[in-house]
Amino acid sequence: MSLGFCAGVALLGGLGATCRFLVDAKLSSAVDTAFPVGTLAVNLLGAFVLGLLMGSGVSGDLLRLLALGLLGGFTTFSTWVFETHRLAEDGLLRVATANIGVSLVAGIGVYWLGDALGSLA
Length: 121
Known about the structure:
- It is globular, with a radius of gyration of 16 Å.
- It has one domain (3-120).
- It is built from five helices and no strands.
- The longest helix has 28 residues, at 3-30.
- 85% of the residues lie in helices and 0% in strands.
């Protein structure tokens, strides 16, 4: 693995994390709910785009740069787990359970949709 490739992953990861912050902040301020809509949105969008990449046949270093760098920085498993745990601690067990179910089912669904649409290109 070259230094240039590592730098590319780092730069794209930083871009992805910045985009995640902006999208999450915008959605969270626009919707008044305990449900973590911002995190859900970025994770579903990331799963969809990953599906598009895979379906369209992107591979090699370009796939690694986009999937590991950009989408890896954009999506967030740790925040999803933290927010779910926080909801449960706050006694919002139904919301926490919904966050788990919606995130998993919708995440797989949008990945498959992206993959299907990507294979049409």
